[in-house]
Amino acid sequence: MKRPAVRITDVAALAGVSAGTASKALNNTGQLSQETRARVQRAAAQLGFTPDARGRALSSGRTYTVALLTTDSSGRFSIPIMRGVEDVLSAGELATVLCDTRDDPLREQSYLRSLVARGVDGIVVTGRRTEPRPPIDVPLPVVYAMAASSDPSDASVLVDDAAGAAAAVTHLLELGRSRIAHITGPADHRSAIERAQAVAATTTLVGPPLFGEWSEQWGRQATDVVLRTHPAVDAISCGSDQIARGVCDRLRELGRDVPTEIAVTGYDDWPVMALASRPPLTSVDLRLEELGRRAAQLLLDAIAGRPHHGVLELPAVLIPRESTLGS
Amino acid sequence: MKRPAVRITDVAALAGVSAGTASKALNNTGQLSQETRARVQRAAAQLGFTPDARGRALSSGRTYTVALLTTDSSGRFSIPIMRGVEDVLSAGELATVLCDTRDDPLREQSYLRSLVARGVDGIVVTGRRTEPRPPIDVPLPVVYAMAASSDPSDASVLVDDAAGAAAAVTHLLELGRSRIAHITGPADHRSAIERAQAVAATTTLVGPPLFGEWSEQWGRQATDVVLRTHPAVDAISCGSDQIARGVCDRLRELGRDVPTEIAVTGYDDWPVMALASRPPLTSVDLRLEELGRRAAQLLLDAIAGRPHHGVLELPAVLIPRESTLGS
Q1: Gene3D superfamilies in the record, alphabetically (chains A, B) (predicted)?
Q2: Mind listing the domains of chain A with CATH numbers?
Q3: Which of A235, A253, B41, B74 qualifies as a FRET site for A122, CA 20 to 30 Å off?
């Protein structure tokens, strides 16, 4: 028996909910009432929707696919975001294709032509920087994750960097630290600027933020500058875990105890840096998987004909460890 | 005008070459004679094969897709391998889907059912460990990359770990070092065992290899053990860059100069470790992109009906830096 494939958007329509809600209900995620969850499950059963794609894909001869377009060649940001996207889409049996543009506009154009030609159902655009980017020009539903579209009528899901940076400084203030310095990345990187502004808005720093690069080496060098210009500093808030690790290394070499003398906070909660640091870093978790999940839910709604507009900011979460709490 | 889609395997058949060779010719990679390259290009022109998929995909209503199935959730190994796979397949306008099994057998089974149902053209299987793995059971062409299939009639592409580890020790011997220790990862990891055996076969070590874990902390701890038991050691060969970075940190803390007193080698050439280390690490580059390219070429041949069998080992490449050469 051949019949048209049932899609999660059909289930959503019958249940009278958005595709994102239908996905959450079938995926057992999100905060839904039991009644909504049950209604979606009844709709899925009635339509013969099953999380096993075999029957559907074979009968329809069509592949449901969503692409994740990224400029992050290292996978440092795109892999956790992709995992979140997959969590949501696999409940609707959509496959996720990762396309790495290697930050090359020609390669991006070539991918977009190919994705449109292949008939993908939608695209999540992400990258390794948080600067707003020009929208991509495709006749498909698109959601931007981590870096917003410069067109405010597009749907973008971002990390609330300002709140994350403020949370780290608030934590230092609550621990009784009052002479705080800020060391961060390049002065032309939006993420460095936003975090520095949020830090300066939360407390009076011992001096202006030190902008440099996203590296351990810069963390070590800037530590020397801070100690020379503000010897009474009792905390250093850093714009990344790499910088914070360099700060901790330099302070240890100088015989200054972390956190007893000087507390240190990182940013990103990148395990390979935050946990290998001595001491392990108090950091700010960007919750990239959650970012991916929310982007996928917005994309499902857009595919179902209910596009969202504007910017959704998700909270980053402070993870306290020994670099502020001690052991 | 509608006509059947021209695929790279059609071009290969007309030119009388394998699909892998056709891909290399159209991709301008590999070592091919000018005559072969020209013959493939003539065949492509004759059949109307174009690297722009639009016409083909639209006229055929079908998506050509290859899946990369991985257990490496960090993307540390799978992202460079995927980049290599894409290099080759994009010349034939095949899309690459990344499927992260999160090392969960049930999730792997679910992915495989879904990929078969979706009609993917072939699968590259990879992971974060080098242990041979049971073959996947699908009616599709499959190539194993980095970890071999336990069925010798399957096609597997591996890094020649033994030669890589031997190259690092040979480099130390050529620099005049003769009292060499080896610090590496867990004794039940094939990559640790293979590297340690190759090191011990290349030189007489000051003592048995020290097996521990893949961490900087273990590198620091094992350094103390080596210095206590073999105070005259003049080089430490390490099974990973993380271990080597820990070794360098500990030696610096003890006031022992690297490399003047003790030379250190890493393994993996992972930039975030090898370049951030003080001093930067001489390491062994696994050439994962090349591994991906070769796996994709073998897969193209298998898709074209010419499967390969057995294990192909690719050389790893020594990258000398300050941790052995000095500055």
Answers
A1: 3.40.50.2300, lambda repressor-like DNA-binding domains (1.10.260.40)
A2: 1-60 (1.10.260.40), 161-286+319-325 (3.40.50.2300)
A3: B74
